Amino acid sequence: MSPNSLDFDHVELLIGSVESAEEANAKAVKSTVLTPRFYTTDFAALDRLDMSPVRAQWDAMMKEYEGDNNHDHFQRDSTFADEVRQLMPQLSPELRQEFLDFLISSLTSEFSGCILYNEIRKNISNPDIKQLMTYMARDESRHAGFINQSLKDFNLGIDLGSLKKTKHYTFFKPKYIYYATYLSEKIGYARYITIFRQLERHPDKRFHPIFRWFERWCNDEFRHGESFALMMRANPHLLRGHNLLWIRFFILAVYATMYVRDHTRPLMHEAMGLHSTDYDYEVFRITSQIARQVFPVEVDIDHPVFRKCMTRLVEIAVADAKAKKRGGLMGALQHGWCVTQAVATFARLYFVPVKRNPLPAEMRVQPTW
Question: What's the pLDDT at 5?
Fold first, then answer.
């Protein structure tokens, strides 16, 4: 089975279906390998971060945040509701489910950032990091609220207060937070700008008005990533020695999760005139180019073993979903075998040779894609 030939039965196994607000909230609360998680960390370590080595760049960035060029962006215009009423009845039930899955997972991811940044802000005294987290929490709160408005069009709004209280939190060491958040913000930019550019070229394929907001939205994501890049460049021990192994791990984990997740939405990509595999490799390409600003290693996304392993992970995910649906002893055994295969496939992926990058003198990157 090719991941590009997933039929809806396979997709439904992987993403389920949502028909009520209760199911939408349950989906947001659920934590799996593929769903966004909520995090907590060692606040004292963040309090000790020293940004003085990049003071000029840091202060310039704080002025950008203070300027808040998106303060009026996340408000629905007069045509938004009309477009929803016009376009939504045209969606097939299958495409509707994929789009809802996209909205719920995107909201959960944005709200996860909002909660983490707020918790850091409340638990540290370092003025530089406290100021940054205040701005980033503000941005992510806007993003999550804007997505939630679109879910409410389907009568599926998420109770964010309840989600904060009920979803499981995962502890990550601060350096894991830096690597994972940097990648998440930059890959978020790459995903949104790729969709925006595609629909800019083909406005007839814009099946929901929320996509019109993606350009300025993704530039928020880009700036967030820049902040974490400065944090890491100001503390260069995070970018050498055994930490290179962790950087490699997080790049692969973020890429693999995205690839499997995106191949559960083939109809959504097709509706936009995109092909799931081509779309993902374009996102990988953009993210890899951006990440050269801070990471000395880069995954070879064109290596045949890399591509083969990505395809294999989708196949394993489908087989695992079937095993879970089967249940019982046989289902449990099949699930265990799928987990073993996934670990082995990721290990093979990990040992694909990486490319080495000299870090540039200029740390900032412009969102020019």
Answer: 53
